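Troubleshooting log. The previous structure file for this entry was overwritten by mistake, so regenerating from the original sequence record. Sequence copied from the archived sheet and checked twice against the printout by T.R.
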Amino acid sequence: MKKITCRAVAILVAFLTTVSVAAQQAAPQRVASVEGITEYRLGNGLRVLLFPDPTKPTVTVNITYLVGSAQEGYGETGMAHLLEHLQFKGSKGHTNIYQELTSRGARTNASTWFERTNFYETLPATDENVKWAFGLEADRMINSFIAQKDLDSEMTVVRNEFERGENDPGGVLEERVMSTAYLWHNYGHSTIGARSDIEHVPIDRLQAFYRRYYQPDNAVLLVAGKFDEAKTLAAAQEAFGGIPAPARELPRVYTQEPAQDGERSVTLRRAGDVAEVLAGYHIPAGSHPDVAPLEVLVRVLADSPSGRLYKALVESKKATSVGGSQYRLRDPGYLLVGADVRKEQSLDEARDVLIKTLDALAAQPVTAPEIDRARVTLLKNIELAVNDSGRFGLQMSEWIAQGDWRLFFINRDRLRTVTAADVNRVARVYLKPSNRTVGLYVPSDGVERTDIPATPDVAALVRDYKGDAAIAAGEAFDSTPENIESRARRVALANGLQVALLPKKTRGSSVVVSGTFRFGDEKSLFGRSTEASLAGAMLMRGTTAHTRQQIRDELDRLKARATAAGGATQATLTIETVRDNLPAVLSLMAEVLREPSFPPAEFLEIKQARLAQLEEARGNPEAIASREFARHLNPYPKGDVRYRATLDEDTADLKAATVEKARQFHAAFYGASNAQLAIVGDFDEAAVIAVVRDRLASWKSPKPYARVPNVYTAAPAVNRTFETPDKTNAIFRAGLNLNVRDDDPDYPALTLANFMFGGGFLNSRLATRLRQKDGLSYSVSSQLQVSSLDRSGTFMANAIYAPQNGAKLEAAFKEELTRLLRDGFTAEELETARSGWLQRRALDRSQDAQLAARLAGDLFIERTLKWDGDLERKVAALTVAQVNAALRRHVSVDAVSIVKAGDFAKQ
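Regenerated output below.
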């Protein structure tokens, strides 16, 4: 063989490198298109999914990496989640990601699960924003710092997030069941990881994990919303195409969980008040055809109020609530059902009834009507999900992680054809005692093993899949206040009901409704808060013409999500459905509001569930801190509708409540004479108004209405601590009342000051100090709440933290507020925050449900969206001196009250 010289080798390497780069820069290859979503593949292996939807002026960029806790090795648990955090700490071309996201008003977040990590941004739909988001994701794909200094500060933040999870016994019990059920597969490990691994993971192992998995050939980029497909694909090629495909071969997760060889048990003993029983079963991978009938089976078992477990446990007063879910994963997953049990109820009896009901499936097979009901609900939820392209685009991460995004549509098709025979077969195959993990050990003879089918060949499964026809797109809608006002129409009916109408063509002909029905006055409502709340809770529990289950079934048939609820001074109505069904849904929900039947059994169930919630709140730092903080800042007399009761008072009032008092409250107060209704989306105005006139215009309120005002109180500053034993996470509340209304000249400045102090996306003063710098809190923020009708407002801050860090966190909070009031914000901070705040307002108006609620609220306070436009112009004109002066006029460190709840005694 002829010897190759060094120069020849160099020429050959250069040639091969040129060929490789050219291949990566080649035009993206179209892979498949299903129902409006098209997949392309770049030369470096990156998959790109484009889902255009011109109906909303937003675009969502979501990148999914096929890596999660399932890929972690020994000592590396929680590593994928840690890297999710660290990739927000900066990259070569984006050194302050939090500030960039805030300045663009982005809705953004990231999440980690067993086999995927995703990062997303929702932004106003412009070519420039899409290119910026692509640039950010491409840069942090390969250039994230993953530095030791960032790990030092962020580790404590993640540990705080871990501690927050430890406060939830129900969540911990689920982790214990999973870790008992999975002996070898990483599905038995919680995604957040072991505390010791979080605290001690070396930076070099994190960096190696990052370089191995966060690469274009292991990622799927999805763009959903309003964009030009050709331009966006070209922008994706420009941003990501130059990233070379890595030379490494990804390690394959080859561990398979063996068939379970007998019922397993786990017992969790922790402080708390509400018990829980869980039963879990191994099931096939999410791509397997048996998962669709299993999904139906979960609803048949755990739905409320039609489910078999609900009827066996809740209706018999053996439990307060039931639930169920299944983990759809790339490898064989898991199915869980369970129940919450109060102190007065027997946990052993609830466990026995739960198991008996599950084991009885063989003798009492699931029926066709049960399956039809479950299928209608599941398919309704799928159809409504597809109508929201941004939300749907984020859901795609779960299906991508299972093997391919088209599995979503394949699963939908499978649900359409599920039969009783299918459901009963999977119940027999998988819901065996030998395949079950529960809270107790039960010896058994003749143990059976359940062999879980192998994961299907997903590539073969989806290769020629076409799906349904793509959903018809709506119109491109500009969500500026001026355009909204040019389209909106307002109608006042004879009985006082006000209606705002904003018609527009939407994706899937979707439409939303928001309504508020106000009643009573300060005197007539005195001492009636509990019965008012219970009357509102009974609205959806049955009418004179429909049972609770019939209401649920009819809403499913009409492809609607709808709810009516009530409190001390008003009732609310929300609807999400499609154009053709809105009149029927409105008619049904008018019946719910006007003609509740107050079934005694349903009333007792509500009481039991609320008593359980109150018992659980006694040891919950979040519940205690928020209640005590509100009691201090709003010292109204007992019996006043604005009074915040103690836990003992709420418990006593709830125990004394009767269904007859709730019924009497509804009869005495409910009506539509002082109501506001807003409808946004695709609807037939004549048909809708006809229903409103027929069902609501004649519904007059029995008693006069007078708004209960919010009264400003200069609450004295206090610093109070409340003990919650055996809780690893503590809660911090701080704030003061403000003598301000939202038409006050200082309100625009205060709004922006709050955004800079504790708003935005982890780029505020508080987040930068308490999370980024000191690593004391996973979740920290501030809020400004100001009335539109009374000079009454509140400025407050919140944080979670480890109890042992209480003194450090409180000192840091005071230092930041003192420094802010002394030195003020900078002009640079103001410009960044102003841009982000204005863009966030535009994003909020692009959400139809939020817009409908705003239009309904504006009817009551006699405003239009012109007020929003004026506010935004005032904010745009603010100077940093005006913002700092306004904050100093209304906020003082000495006036701030602090409330803390946690297990401080143990420290």
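Residues 1-20, 440-444 have pLDDT under 50 and may be disordered. Archived copy saved in two places this time.
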